[in-house]
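Prompt: For my understanding, could you write out one protein's sequence and backbone structure tokens?
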Amino acid sequence: MNRSKSLFLCALCGFAALPAQSEMRPSLSFAGVTGLIDMPSGDQQSDGTLSFVKSQFGPIGRNTLTFQITPRLSGSFRYASVKDWYTKANPNDITTYYDRSFDLRFQVTREGRYVPAITVGLQDIIGTGIFAGEYIAATKTFGDRVKVTAGLGWGRYGTYGSIGAPFGDRPKVDFGLGGKPRSGQWFRGDVAPFAGVEWQLNKQWSLKAEYSSDDYVEEATKRSTFDRNSPFNFGVEYNLGNTVRLGLYSLYGSKIGFAAQFVLDPKKSPRGGSVGPGPLPVTTRAAAKSWDPNWVNDRGSQTAMRDQTQAILTRDGITIETIAISPSRVHLRIRNTTLDNAPQAIGRTARALAATMPASVQTFEIVPMAQGVPLSTVVIKRADLEALEFAPGQDVAMEQRTQFLPAAAALPPGSIRSDGLYPRFKWGIAPYASSSLFDPGKPVQIDLGLRLTATYDIAPGLILSTAITKKIVSGIEKGSFDSNTELRPVRSNADIYATEGDPAIQKLTLAWYAKPGPELYSRLTVGYLERMYGGVSAELLWQKTDKPYAIGAEINYVQQRDFNQLFGFQDYNVVTGHVSGYYSFAGGYHARLDMGRYLAGDYGATLALDREFANGIKVGAFATLTDVPFDTFGEGSFDKGLRVELPLSFLTGQATQKSGKLTIRPLLRDGGARLDVDGRLYETVRKYQKSDLDAAWGRFWR
């Protein structure tokens, strides 16, 4: 992984030292889902909650990432390990077994005065089936301190104390290469009851006890990794603030276990908001600066206005690209380099203009720029800004009176460009962490080193950039896993790139961004595009400013780079490209469909679904199906994964556009592999289109 993944790990470390809350919030189980100790419950986390649980008892360890997708639906990814595991073919071959699994849970009823919260869950739905199980769990709160849970389980949750098989025998399924749902097993076979209780002693301490219906047939009976002597489990948990909970447990009459739960609610900032400078008060025109009437024809006066506006905006990290002032209107093009919220940047700019523009200027046209390209025109009436600053419902009222229009590529007549913007050179050195996950021989491997980045803005839209890495700690080794694929190894040899590239030219590109039409954006990038491929990448995006959808097309001609990631190439080249459709739904949900040709020459489509919050937190999933047969693709059957992005501003309260990004792929294969080129247009453009501005508009006045 790259530097963004190290930022993601730093973000997780920032969860501690937060104030505790008084209500009895849902806790998490050893399996990382809402539950008791080793059994699930009928509760759900609050909408949008992102959680991570690390648990261990005896030989069994679990690492689970769970996201509350909607108020009723949650999904989990789990990476589990079982030590002292021996193969059936050779009992003397003792090893550690690793397994990846996905869960889904849906809450049928929410808790009411008389009705319990009832949840239906599917565990390990597309993996090997070792941890597969289904359940129906009901939870009821009594007072504000006690929760009682009872449920019925199938699969592994039906292996102890069975009361029959009401829906027939559970068929055996050959999971083959894995990665495909085993729906024929769901709620089939023996069913067994489970139950438990949670008692919250005070704000920090709580006790748990449960009766487990999981007999651990594979781990305890067949492979003797531990002794299951009792179905009863007991535990004590301590809340270390709103986001961290630690637990110590007695499990199955033979083992002591522990768990660490990290819970993040994207709708609640851990730091209670930004600690940066507050906004200026809106300056009314009666108090605004008075200019000599000849200012309209005096370029020096207009330059002075630009400089005064820039002096105010500098503290917010906003740079003026150009300004054009007429007697009644100002057209200002800005580059936001610091604030992570687009409406906040627009609001701060409008306040600055109110403080510096002559009284006759009635309309502010604010044009955000990215990569030297104008993205949209946000039109604000000065009178509305003055009237609504302290009005009730000011956010909604201001948004309703603001216009969002396409931005023309050409500058208005009389525009004054700021000095020193082009050409401009920037560089920096920072530590980085790169990781390799899920190799059976060594599941977590990390390289540490330094990354040199440099950018040269030659002219608006024309950018030369590079990134060079030098390892200090080499933790990633060549993989022990044989990809066993008939496809060209376009991604599965990532471990070779990781071990042989030191130092490495991660990228070296010349990119040209342009706007051929009011609603068209283009990108052309040439050079060493990423660590594995170099060549040419061209992209065109159609995005209407006031619509929630967009259409794009990309075509690339690339050649595979040498493993040392310097200047040489291997003998494999390919033309790859996609047609893409994007749609932003209400509630922060985003969908993307890419159809085209991938790096291995296969044809297919990728569907991605993401949820994004107003503060920039993103959680999503993706899956790719191509014309590569499952048995040719290899283990996992098709490409799929999860991704999480955490803005550091949300966790630290400091204004910054940096974020930690993590992409989790259970397996990195060659089918469905796509070029990883920086600066794709949709993510660059959409932040300042109406649908995204609407979603984050609550910070316009801040």
